[in-house]
Amino acid sequence: MAYTTSVSIWAFAFSLYLGVSKCYFSIPLKIYTGKYNVSSVVDLTPLRRVALISDGNGLSLASDPTGTVNFLDMVQNLEGDSGRGYYIEMSIGTPSQTLNILVDTGSSNFAVAAAPHPFITHYFNTALSSTYQSAGRTVAVRYTQGNWEGELGIDRVIIPKGPNGTIIVNIAAILSSDGFFLPGVNWQGILGLAYPMLARPDSSVEPFFNSVVKRLGIPDIFSLQMCGAGLSASSTADPAGGSLIMGGIEPTLYRGSVWYTPIVEEWYYQVEVLKLEVGDQNLDLDCREYNMDKAIVDSGTTLLRLPVNVFNAVVEAITRSSLIQDFSSGFWDGTKLACWMKGETPWRFFPKLSIYLRATNSSQSFRITILPQLYIQPITDVDGTLDCFRFGLSSSANGLVIGATVMEGFYVVFDRAQRRLGFALSNCAVSGGVALSEIAGPFSAADVAADCSAGMLKEPIMWVISYALMAVCAVVLIILLLLLVLPCRRRDHSGEITDESSLVRHRIK
Fold first, then answer.
1. Which of 327, 317, 260, 250 is nearest to 284 (CA)?
2. Superfamily (CATH H level) for 74-218
3. Is 55 noted as a catalytic residue in this protein?
4. How far apart are CA 182 and CA 195, in angstroms?
5. Which of 81, 220, 293, 298 is catalytic?
6. Which residues of 137-150 are buried (b: 16+ CB within 10 A; e: fewer)?
7. Helical spans, DSSP H, in 244-388
8. What residue ranges do the domains of the chain occupy?
9. What is the CATH number of domain 248-470?
10. Cβ atoms within 10 Å, residue 5
11. What is residue 162's DSSP assignment?
């Protein structure tokens, strides 16, 4: 009887253990990659200096010539293009060491190379800076492509073409990396401009722009113009560049009105997409498909990335409307280039692409449109006789990402103070006298759901669920271990059972 009972207990425990193990290993711990508001017609004054005030309608206007920020000093403070990234020059440490830093609105860590790497020409030597202080914490960040590891510290930073003043900020010193620094890039670090929620190793690490706002007293707003539209990544003539305006808006960089849309949640710059059109074809998908599992605006992503179902629908619609019916599938999935005889532009064969965003009035929307010149992108020429192009869209398992392919058509305002993003036509999104982008609205949104993000589990909620499941599984495991150990140790009730586990690194784009 005792033997039968013991076997039964072991069998019961083993079966429960298998069930619990399955629960433990299936806990979702992945961070997914990465409501729109439209203003009425807004005519900004040509004032350039800060601080910003409200005009009564929630729009930030430049008004006070205090000298803290001169927006004109920041115009053309970026170099680079969509293929190699847009970067800004920074001076770090004492004495200053100058590095080029990639501008990324899809992450939150300020990180710089702090060790040699084959693909970079120089790095930040922490030993040579008298003001660098190590925080004694390690940090690791994994992106959609590439990752790095290093240590956290603090030091002084000056942006030569940025706000006046020296800022003490958190810096991640990159000591090792894989696939992060790439051949041909001219930057040695990354400037994450998103919210603390995405900071690694946790949200206690204050992001760079939060520190700038707090220490220099500038308004919590920045705006971004990226001027590589329609330019070949291999071209040295007419180099691209752009502007990162910290503290406000520079009216000379755009034309027409700024159309605002709310930030759905403050981690990435998450927005709500209502529908997509290819030419005049509405894809006619449920709007929740576009926001699966989120839709974000990310300057650090080159392409327009779409959820798989949306991407397939877009490719099918382009194929139907394109004058070229028999196109290699390799072109659509990014494995092949399409080439034409030099001087023969392919853009006339392709339709416009439009993204509808929810307006301030939730029953309305507005539309941002890019011409084929922005998503059929020149890459290189072959023997001087052919021009080759790539498809500027890709499928995504991590949500919809409005990357440089779209952003290059617009002047984008990240108005964090008012929790909204603004879009205006960029003055540099012009090729051969033709504007490469369009904005129109407002339109009725009565034909879409009241909340296209409804039903999507946001990552903070996923974290809570994950930790709760881990706690439940840990408790059950402890109980099972006690059941296994106690029958064998009837004479000794002392001892302690501990359970240690660690989370996987999170993918942040």
1. 317
2. Acid Proteases (2.40.70.10)
3. no
4. 26
5. 298
6. eebbbbbbeebbbb
7. 287-290, 308-321, 329-332, 372-375
8. 74-218, 248-470
9. 2.40.70.10
10. 10
11. S
- Among 300, 275, 308, which residue's Cα sits nearest to residue 403? 300
Q: What's the rounded Cα separation, in Å, for the pair 155 and 133?
A: 7
Q: What is the mean predicted confidence (pLDDT) over 130-159? A: 96
pLDDT at residue 231, rounded to an integer: 62
pLDDT band, residue 462 (cuts 50/70/90): low
At 52 the pLDDT is 39
3-state secondary structure of 190: strand
E strand residue ranges, 350-490: 353-358, 364-370, 376-382, 386-391, 393-396, 400-402, 410-415, 420-426, 430-431, 434-435, 437-444
Q: What pLDDT score does 257 carry?
A: 95
Query: Residue 440's closest CA among 370, 361, 343?
Result: 370
pTM, entire model: 0.78
User: Of the listed 104, 155, 293, 415, which one is catalytic?
Assistant: 104
Same fold yes or no, 74-218 and 248-470:
yes
Q: Average of pLDDT values for 378-389?
A: 83
Q: Which residues pair with 271 in a beta bridge?
A: 295
Question: Is pLDDT larger for residue 413 or for residue 486?
Answer: 413
| Catalytic residue status for 298 | yes
Asked if 208 and 169 count as a contact pair (C-beta separation under 8 A), the reply is yes
Residue 486 confidence (pLDDT) above 90: no
Instruction: Let me know: does 145 contact 179? Beta carbons within 8 Å.
Output: yes
Can you state the percent helix, strand and coil of the chain, rounding each to 5?
Answer: 20, 35, 45
**Mean pLDDT taken over the chain:** 81
Q: Which tokens in the block code for residue 320?
A: 């139907």
